[in-house]
Structures are given as C-alpha cells and as structure tokens.
Amino acid sequence: MTSPRVNLLDFDADQMAAYVAGLNEKPFRAKQLMQWIHQRGVADINDMSDLAKSFRATLLDKAEVLSLPVMKDEHATDGTRKWLLDVGAGNAVESVFIPEDDRGTLCISSQAGCAVNCRFCSTGRQGFSRNLTSGEIIGQLWFAEHLLRSDPEAIRRIEKYPTPGWEHTGRVISNVVMMGMGEPLLNYDNVVSALRLMLDDRAYGLSRRRVTVSTSGVVPMIDRLAQDCPVALAVSLHAPNDALRDQLVPLNQKYPLHELLAACERYLPFAPRDFLTFEYCMLDGVNDSDIQAKELVRLLRNIKCKINLIPFNPFPESGLKRSSDQRIHAFFGILLDAGMVATVRKTRGDDIAAACGQLAGDVVDRTKVRERALHKAEIELTELESDEDTDEELNARSNEQPIEWLKKLN
Fold first, then answer.
1. Which end of the chain has fewer CB atoms at under 10 Å, N or C?
2. The whole model's pTM is what?
C-alpha cells in the first residue's frame, strides 16, 4: 500500500527545508519550491521548470499542492467576496476578501466551527468539528491571492490605489486577519506555522503589522504568541465587566478580565505596533449604555489600545439586536471625550452574510451545540406556553438587566 502524498502547503520554510533534505536534495531546492508555490501560485509540479527532472519525478510520486475545493463564490454589492471552501468529511469553512482603496484584506478561518460559542457569533452556533491544518489555513490565502490576480476589478483597484511598497509585487492581498471561523489560539501550532508563511519573504512577505490574530482571550497562548510569532493582536472584548462578559464570551469564565488584560500588557512590548485593538460588538440594550461606555474607559485607560466598535450583524438564532446608530454614536463620543482612541467599523458584505460574526460555513458538530440548543428551546417553549403571564409581563422580560435577560434569552 502506497503512502499518501504530503501536501506541500502544510510546510513553512523550516519544514520545507527539512522535507527537501529528507529527499537528499540541496537546500536551495526548498527556496525554489516556496517561490513556485506561494509567490507564483503554481500547483502543478510539472510546471516548476527550473527544478531538476529527477526532483520533479520524486515530488510527483510523494507530494502535491492541494488547495481547498470551492463550493460557493459570492459577490456583495460593496465588492466584498466570500468563498465557501470544502475541508472534507461534511465540513466547510468561509473566507472573505474585503477590498478597500488603500488595501485588500483577507479574513481567513482557523477551525471548522468554534468551541468558544460567543453569544453574538453565528460560527459558535454551528458548534465545533475540528482544527484546520496549517495547509488548510494558508491554503485560503494561496487560493484567494492567485485567483484575485486574474480578477479585473481587483487589478484595477491595485492600479488606482497602489499599497505603499507593493506597487511592483502584483499582489492583491496586503492584509490578513485571522477573524474568520474559529478561535485561532485554540489551534495554536497550525496557526503559527501558517503565520510564518505569511511573513516569509520567500512566500507572501507580509509585514507583521499587516497580519492580525483575533482572540477571545486564550491567555496562555497570548503569552506564547508574543515569543513565537508576534503579529498584530485584536482581542474580542465586548463587555466592560466579568459578569456581562461571562454571558457574552463564555471563555471569560476560565480567563477573566484581570488575567486577560495582564496578558495584553505583557504582549505589548512584542507587538509590531505600539497598541493593541479591542473589539466591542454593539448589542442593543445589552452592552451599549453610557454607564458601560464609562466603565470601558476605566477598564482600558492604562493600556495603549484602540477600541473598535462593531455594529452587530444579526443572525436569526441570536435573539439579539444591533445598537441604533444614535446609541453607537453616543457610546463612541464618550470614549473620545475620555481621550480613548476609537473607531466604528464599517459593515461590509452583510448582504451575503460575510460581515463580522456572520460566518457560519457548514460544520459536522462534534460538540452537539445545535442539538443541545434545540432541546433547550423546546423545553423553554413548553414552559412559556404553560405560563399565565400577561403580554405586558412577557414584554417586560426584555427590559430586565442585561445579564439576567441574557440568561433567559433563547
């Protein structure tokens, strides 16, 4: 029985060098392979013309460049593009390209599903199946970059608004954010291997400042990332105190705010920028009051940071609503008046469910999140139907304190 071929997308530079050495080839062959695969986007080993024929024959027998099959390609009216990619065994993940005048950002996934189950995130409602391999993670960038090079709209954007320092590279994607499906720091080794490829000049040559890992707060891995591969860090905060964050981001029960913020302060000396980003999803009546804005100021005033306010992108199962524009503006104003650096994220791709928090893909859920949620909903519906509450009493439940309301909300 023959051994399965290795996927060369799974190898970062050091791993590629070790693989080539194991084939008794000279070290420069590893650099050639990296350039053919990642810079030129060549998947057919026969087309790697400056490799020796004997080496190509060996590779054809033992290796391949295997990208992810595309199941769906969607275009939003604002130019955002979303792909549904098959990762096998009934699982599919989503990647999103967001074109801007001065940059092209790719949002990529790190897991099939997510076990963190944040209240406002559609991915968490899908449950969790497995970690993606490093090849499946970097494969999203490999696929998107080389596909977009043949997209006339993407090329015109580059020609009209060249990213400084990238004018002659021909590259379409200038920024990568690990903000797709999954919690990156719970798939640490594979994510770091993919990050190293993104940063490697023999591959994609991205600046550390242009690669961002977003985490819900896996404290030990924040410390490891600072040592192993420090890139820009974004922390999904979403609440100014532990009681509320416990309800919105369940991981907070394991790593509460004081531990998370201490890890952030330890990360700052290694960060490629002199600040960190805190993401704050604006939820109507839950975390968007003036009092909570002032509490957020007190929480973060001693950390060099930018606060990114994200208008909630609704999905049916959440039971949550987006804060009004007026409420977001008032919250934003309190932060600015207190001297904080803050922005309001522009919603992109929501007409194709490609906006922040909307990525769901298709996941064979080993954690039974959906099954348990459905069972709980059936029980609560039976209890509700048997209640003798008046309509006024039922409506009043939504006006309870946010923490109590979230506990009861299906």
1. N
2. 0.87
